[in-house]
Amino acid sequence: MGGTSVWFGWLALALAMTCRSISGFLLEGSPSSFAQFPRWVPGANGSLEFEFLTQEPSGLFLYTDDGGSYEFFEVKLIEGSVRLHYNLGGGARLLTVGRGLNDGRWHRVKVSRRHDKTQLTVDGVSEFRSAKALDHEFGSPASNSFVYVGGLPELVSRQVGARLTLPVVTLEPRFAGQIRQLVYTGVDGIPRTQDMVASQGVWMEGRHGDCDQHDPCMNGGRCYSSGHGPLCDCSLVNYEGPNCEKERPSEEATFRGREYLWWDLRRIGGQPLASQHDQLSLSFKTRHPAGVLFFTGHGKDYVNVALREGGVLVTLDMGGDPLKVTVRPDKVRFDDNQWHTVTVHRTVKEINGHTSFCTLSVSVDGLYTEKGTTAGPFSQLSSSRIHLAGADVPALLPGAETRSNFVGCLRKVEYRADSVRLDLIRMAREGNPLLHVSGKLDFMCLEVEAGDPVSFTTQESYLDGPENGVVKFTRPDAVLVLPSWEAPRQGSISFKMRTTEANGLLMFNSGSVSSQGDFFALELLEGHIYLHLNLGSGSRKVKATNRRVDDGWWHEVTLNRDSQAGRITVDEGANDFTTPGDSHQLDLDGALYVGGAGNGINVPPELWSGRLGLGYVGCMRDLVINGQAADLASYAKKQDSGSIVRFCHSDGGSCSSSPCLHSGECKAGWGRFICDCSHTSYVGPTCGKNAATLHFDGSQYVRVTAGEESSTQAEDIAFRFRTNRPVGLLLTTTSGVSSDKLELALQSGRLRLTVKLGDRDKVMYAGNGLNDQQWHSVKLTRRATQISLQTDKDPPTIEHTMGRHSILEYRDIHIGMVSSNTSTSWRPSSTFLAPSSTLSSTPLASSASSSSSPSQVPVPAFIGEMQSFYMNGNYLFEMARSGHVDRLEVTATFTKGPQVIHHPVTFKSKSAFVALPQLKAYASTNIYFQFKTLEPTGLIMYNGGKGHDFLALELVNGHIHLVFNLGSHPVKVRDNNKVALNDNKWHVVTVSRPSPRQHTLMVDDNIATATNGAGDENLDLQGFLYLGGVPPEMYTSLPRHVMSKTGFEGCLASLDLNGEAPDPAGKDVPIISNRVFAGCDGPSTKCHRNACANGGTCVQQWNSYSCNCDMTSYTGPTCSDESTAYEFGRGTGVMSFKYPQGRWPDSRRDLLAVGFMTQQEDAVVLRLDSANSNDYMELEIVDGNIFMVYNMGTEDHPIGDVTTKVNDGLYHVVRFIRTGPNATIQIDDYKVFSKNPSENVQLSDLKVLKKLRSRIWHGHQLSVFNAQSHLQIGGRRSRRSTDIERPFMGIMSGLVLNGEHPLDLAAERDPRLEVEGDVHLLLRLPRGLPSEGRQTEFNPWQRTPPLPGPSPGEGDDLVFSGAGSGCDMDDEDECIPVFDTGSGDDLITPVYIPPTLPPISKPPPHAFIPDVDVGGSRQPCDDEEDCYIGSGSGEFNTDGGVMPDGDSGGDDIEVEFPVTNHPMLAPDVIHSEEHEPTHYNKNKDPGSGPTTTGSTLAFTSSSTTSTTAPPTRPPMKGSNTKPTATSYPPSLPQPSPPTYDYYDEYTDFTEVEFPKKPTVIKEDPPDLHSEAAGGVALIISIIAGALIIIILIILLVLKFKGRQDGNYKVDQTKNYEGIPTMPTPMINGQGNGNIKPGDRRPVKKQSKDVKEWYV
C-alpha cells in the first residue's frame, strides 16, 4: 500500500474512532497494523498498564519516546517473555519478566516509575532497575510522541531520522493478539483508561477474523484478516508468494574490496540497538585469506567477525576483557573459493545484579565449532554501528585483526538481536533507510577479478594488458608489464600502495630508441618514495615523502606532469618539481613495468633499485593512468606466474617459527620472511643448501663478462672467504673505456677497498688478521658516493668518495685474479694502490685516504676458498654450479661439503601426493631438491598450465626426465648420468633457465642442456604444483610426453622452488594425501634370504619387495605356487605360439625356464624359429639328457647336461640363458653348464651335433636371434610336413620364454596360441609319473640329487653316521639323514638307500692320467667317442674339483671344502656368482680323506665349453691325483658356495652297470688316437670293478658290526611313503616339485667329521 493511501486510511479510521472508549481490541499483526493512543506523561511517579492475550512468541506491545532526543519506553514480547527497554538519560536499560506468556491467556503488564527507579510487573511478578539522571521527568507533553501499540504507522517509520529516538523499533515484529484496559497513571496518581486515537488492522473485541475460519498461509507465514479476506505475512520466513508457498531466493552480493554495507545510528541521533542474545548467520565464498566480514558495536561494546589466514576469527568485547574465538582447522582453509556458512551465537546469563556470564559460539559449515566464555558487569550488547564486508578504513574498526575489506561473495546475511531480525543484503536491495551502501554493489555473485589485490613474488612474473584492481607483490622479483605510458606533453598516474619493506622498484618505463635517455620511474628507497624523470635533457630525482611509507598502511600516490613542471603527491603531502634542460616532451616506448623490471631490461644507473634487482614487495590497487583505470588484477591473471596474487594481506611469512636454518638470521618482510645467510656456509631461502665453494690455487679465477660497458651508481656485494695468505686479490673490475675500478684485496691480513671514480681514488680498510684460515664474511654497499664496508659482524666503516663522479663503469668482474682476454694462461695484473707516502710507510695506520697519483704495487692472486658470492641480486657461484655459463668463466675448483638434508618427506605409496601452490616460473626457472628411492619410475613433480603449457619432472628407468612446454612444442631433457639413480642414495637435482631459450638439468654434478626453439618464452602455469604424483584420476589426462603412470615412491628433501622453500609435510600445505609422512624412512620391508621360494629372485622395492618367478617354473607372490600345467598324451600333440605379423622381436638375449615330467629318452620339448632366417633354438631330450641347440646364423651350438637323466618321471626345471653366442643351462639345482663358442667349431661338440644331425659351420659367431616368430611346444613340425617329429609325452608346467607365459595364454584361450592333438590342461601337478615295468616302492619325490662323479654303486665306498641329525620325528629310523657339524665321535650306522636313477653315462675319475702336458698343451685322445671332458686338454678336470699337476709327481693333494650348515641355494643364473678363493692342503698321506675347512677349489679346462661346479666334491677314494702347475686365468668359473657331500647319500649299492658309449663332451685335440684312449678306459674300468667288489664286502662287515653296537635300530621293512628316505633337491628351502607348505623336509648339513674307510 502506498504511503499516501496508508496515511488517508489511518486518518479516516482515527476520525471514526475519536472519543470512543475502547475496552478491548484485536491487532491482526500485519505489516501495517498499529493502534495509536494519547501521549503518556508520567512525570517522576507515573505508570502504564494493560492486558494482552496472544499465541505469538514475539511482538511489539507499545512504544513511546520524548520526540527524538534520547528518552524512550519500549515494551515487547520476546520468545514468550515481556521485556522493557528504556532510557531516561542514564543509558539504556533492560528488564525482563515472565516466561511462556504466549499461551493464549490474559496477562497483565504494568510499567511504573518512582524517580530513579523503574519497575516492570507481569502478573504480579516484578523486576526493577535504578538509573541516575539529571531529570527524572519523561519528556514533556509538548514533545512526547503518541503511544503506539502493536507497531508504528508507516509514515512514522519512514521518518526515522527526525521523529524516533529508537529508530530500530521500526524493525520489531508487530504484535498479533488482543489488548485491553490500557490505563495511564499521571503525577496525580489517578488511573485513566485511554481511548484509541487512530489505528489500522485493528478489530473490535469479540469479532472473529477471517483467519479463524481459514488460514491459507504455508511454511510459517502469519495470517491476518483484511477487508478482502485472509492475507499472509511472509516477512519473517524464507518464503514468498501470496500464501508463502515459494522459497525465497537467497540474497547475494559481490564485494570487490571497495564495497560494503553500513549503518550508524549516531549520525541520526538514534539510540543503539540493545540485546541480550545475538545470532549472526552468513555464507561467504572467497579466494582471499583475510578481510572483514561483519562488525557491530557501540562504544566499547562490539563483535568483529573477520577472515584471517584462511580461518574465521570472532572478537567480542562487552566492556570487559576481549574474547577471541578462532576457527581454523588443521589442513583446512576457508579461502578456497567455495561456499562456507558461519554462525555466531552470543548469550548472556545474569549471575547476580552486578555480574553476567557471556558465552560465544562460532561454527563454520556445522563441522568446525569453537566456543569461548567471559564474565563481567554487563547485561546487554549495544549496537549503533553495523558494517558488512568492510569499512572505509577497516583497520580502525574496534577489534580489527585485519586491514583488508572482504573480497568475494556474501549470501543470506542475517543478524538477529533478540526479536529484531535483519536480512542485511535484502534490506540494502530494498533501500531500507537505516542501511547504506558504499560503492557499486552487484546483488549477485560474480567472479571477483578486477577488485582483487595481487602480489609480485618473482622478477620473472609480469602482466600484459590494461584494465582496476588490487595487486600484491609478495617477492622482490615480481613484475607486471603494462602498455607504455603515453604522456609526451602531459599525463597523470595515481595508485595506492601498501607495504612494510623499505626498498623496491614501483614503476619503470624506458624511452624510445630515438630519445635522448628519456625514462620515467618511481622507486621506494629506505622507506621513502622517489620520482625519476628524464625528458632527454637531464635526469631529475625528487624525494616525494617526508615520512616513511613502509608502515603497512595504504598510501595514495599521485603524479601530474605538464611539460617540464609537475607535482607528486603522497597522501596529503605535495612536492612540485621541474625537469632540467630545454626538453619539454617525454618520449617513452616499450612496456610500463610495475613492481620491478623484467629480465634483460637495461635501467639507468641512477635507478638504484633496478640496478640492484630490488623489486617491490607489497600491495597496489586503484591504478589510474591518464584518467583511465588500469585493472591490475586482470593483468595479474593474464601474466600469472604464481608470484602475483590477487589479494592484499600481510599474512604468509613469520619469523616466529624460526624458519632459517644453520644460524641464519630471520627478518620479517611483507607477507614473508627473509633469511640472511651471509654469515653461514649455506644459501637458499631458508639457508638450507650448501653454498657453492670455490678453491683458488693462485692461477685460477672466476670472470664475469657483462658483454658491454656497464654504468652503475649502486652495488651490493657480499661473500665469504678463508685463506692463510696475508695478501691476495679478492675482486676487481675492469673497463675497456674507463679507468674506473672497484677493487677488494687482502693486504697484511686486512681487507682493503679501492674505489676509483673518474680521476680520484678512495681507499678504505676493514678487519684485521683475516688470514687465519677461518671463514670471514665481507659486505660492501655503495650508493653513489657513499660506501659502506663491513667484515664479519663488526660495525661497518662508512666513507664518501671524493669529487663529483658517482658512476662506476666496468665491463668485466674478476674474482681471484685478473685473467687475460685473449689467452688461457692467466697472469696477475692488478695492483695495490699506495695513495701517499704516509700510507706507504705505515699502511695500517689510516683507514682511508685519497690521492690523484697513487703508486702501484702488484697484487698477487688469491689462494684460498670463497663461497656465497652475491652481487646485485645474483649468487654468481651458484649460477656457475648450476650451468649458467653464458657470462661466467670459471677455472677455480668447486669443492664438496657435507650433504645437507632439510624438510624431508616420504612418499610411501605410488598413489601418494602433495599439492603445493602454483610454481612461480613465468620467465625463469630455479628448482632444487634432493631425492632417494629404490623405484626406477615415478612422477616427481607436475604443474599444469594454460593451453599446452606444463612442467614435469619424472623418474624413468632410473633417470630424471625434465619435460615442459612453453606453448609451442614440448621439450624433454634427460640427465646424462651413467648409472641409474634408484640406488637408495641421495641425489641432487637442479633445474634452471639461464636464458629464455636455454634450459639445464643438473643431477649431482652432471649437466644436461636443451635449447627451446622459436616461440613463447614464458611458462604460463596455473593450478597446484603436485609433488610425488598427482591424483589417480589425473594420470590419464597428463600430456602424452609424460611417461609416468604412477607416483614417486621414496624421499624428497631440501625443496627450493624459485627462492621459496616450502615444507611438503607442513601444516600450511593445501592438500596432503594419505601415505605422506614427514622425515625419510628407508624400505620398511627388505629382501631376505628366504623371501622367494624355488630360486625366485627377490626384487627390492621402496616399501616392500616382490619375487621374480620367471626362471623358476613356479608362480605366486613368493614363487611357491604351481604354474599352469599341461599334459601331452600318447596321442601326440603340440602347441603353437605365433608372434603378431610384422612385430617379430629381435633378441640379443633369451631367457627360458620350463618344468616338466617325462619318461621319454628322446623328444623335442620346444622349438623357436625365425620368420626370415635360419635362426632357431630347440630344447630336446637325447638319451634321457637335456640339450639346447641354438643357431644365430652360423652354426649349431649344443649345450646340455650329460650327467643328469631327466626321463625318470620326476619333476625337473630347466633354465637356459643366452647372451649373444654364449649360453648357460642348468637342470634343477645342479651344475650350471656354460658355452662360449669360438669362431671354429669345437670337436667336443661333434658327438652331440652328429647325434642331432646338425649342420656344422665355421666363421664369426653372430649374436642376434632375428625375427622370433614361431614357438612350438611339445614337439616340432617341419614347414613341409604335418607330422609332429619327436613328440613330447609327459607334463609341462611354468614355461616362460623372454617374459611370455605361453601355457598361461593357452589356459586363457589367447588367439595367438593354438593347441592341437592330445594336450590337456591339468588342475594340479601330480607328484610324479608312474614307473614303467617295475614296482615303485618309494615316494617319487624321494630323489637323491644326481651329482657329477661316480653314480651309486660306481666306486663309492662310503659309510656315514646318522647321529646328531636334528630330526624331529618320533622314530629316528624314519628320519632323513641330516648331517651336522659335530665332534667326529659319532657311531657309524650303515643305512640302505635304494638308487633312484640309472647309472649316469660317465666313468669314474682316474687316479692318474699319464699323458699330461705340464705346459697346458693339448694331448691326444685315442677314441673321440670315449673321450670325456678335458681328456684332450692337457688338464684333467674332475668333478671333484681336483686338478693333477704334472710337476708334483705322484704326490696326492687334499681338497679343502667349506663348512656349511644351511640349505643349498639355487645358483643365480642371471647374475654372476662370487666364490671364495682356492686353497690347497699339501698333505701327502694317501689314506687321508678330505678335510672340512672353509675354502673351495676352483677348476677349469682350456676348452671353450666349461662347467660351473655346484656342490664341490672330494676325489674318489684311492685315486692318485697330481696337482698341475698350470696358472688359472681370472675368468675361470668357480663352484657355488653351497656344498654337498655326495658321499653322504649312499651306504649300499646295487649292481653297477656301465654304458657302452658314455655321452661326454670332449676337447679339440690336434690328433685323435682312439685305440690308446680305449685301452686306458678298459684298464680303468677293470680296476674300478675290483675296487667296488672289495668295498661291498667291507660294507657288509661294517653293517653287521654296527648292528651289534645297538646304537641305532634300522627297520628296513617299513614303508617310507609319508617320510622321504632320500633328500629332495631344495631351492631356498623349497622342494623342486610340488611340495606343500606343511611338508617337513630336513635340510642336509655338512658333516664336520665323517668317518671313512678307503681301499
Write out key terms for the chains shown.
single chain; 1655 residues; 13-stranded antiparallel β-sheet; 12 helices; disordered C terminus
Describe the structure.
- The protein is flat, with a radius of gyration of 50 Å.
- The strands form 21 sheets. Strands 90, 91, 92, 93, 94, 95, 96, 97, 98, 99, 100, 101 and 104 form a 13-stranded antiparallel beta sheet that branches. Strands 1, 3, 8, 9, 10, 12, 13 and 15 form an eight-stranded antiparallel beta sheet that branches. Strands 36, 38, 43, 44, 45, 47, 48 and 49 form an eight-stranded antiparallel beta sheet that branches.
- The longest helix is centred in the C-terminal third of the chain and has 36 residues, at about 1570-1605.
- By secondary structure, it is mainly beta.
- About 5% of the residues lie in helices and about 35% in strands.
- The chain has twelve helices and 106 strands.
- The chain starts with a helix and ends in a 24-residue tail after the last strand.
- Strand 12 and strand 13 (about 190-195) form a beta hairpin.
Distance between the termini: 134 Å
Structural class: mainly beta
Beta-strand residue fraction: 35-45%
Number of helices: 12
The beta-strand count equals 106
Mean pLDDT: 75
Radius of gyration: 50 Å
Write the layout of secondary structure elements.
Elements: H1 3-16, E1 24-27, E2 34-37, E3 47-53, E4 59-65, E5 72-78, E6 81-87, E7 93-97, E8 107-114, E9 117-122, E10 125-130, E11 147-149, H2 154-158, H3 160-163, E12 177-185, E13 191-193, E14 198-200, E15 202-204, H4 210-213, E16 222-226, E17 229-233, E18 239-240, E19 246-247, E20 252-256, E21 260-264, E22 273-275, E23 277-285, E24 291-298, E25 301-308, E26 311-318, E27 323-327, E28 340-350, E29 356-364, E30 368-376, E31 381-383, E32 385-388, E33 407-417, E34 420-423, H5 424-430, E35 436-438, E36 470-473, E37 480-482, E38 490-498, E39 504-511, E40 519-525, E41 528-534, E42 539-543, E43 555-562, E44 565-570, E45 573-578, E46 588-594, H6 608-611, E47 618-625, E48 628-630, H7 632-638, E49 644-645, E50 665-668, E51 673-676, E52 682-683, E53 689-690, E54 693-697, E55 702-712, E56 714-722, E57 728-734, E58 741-747, E59 750-757, E60 760-766, E61 776-783, E62 786-791, E63 797-800, E64 808-815, E65 831-834, H8 837-841, E66 848-849, E67 855-858, E68 863-871, E69 874-875, H9 876-881, E70 888-890, E71 893-895, ...
Antiparallel strand pairs: 1-12, 1-15, 2-11, 2-14, 3-8, 3-12, 4-5, 4-11, 5-6, 6-7, 8-9, 9-10, 12-13, 16-17, 18-19, 20-33, 21-32, 21-35, 22-31, 23-28, 23-33, 24-25, 24-32, 25-26, 26-27, 28-29, 29-30, 33-34, 36-47, 36-49, 37-46, 38-43, 38-47, 39-40, 39-46, 40-41, 41-42, 43-44, 44-45, 47-48, ...
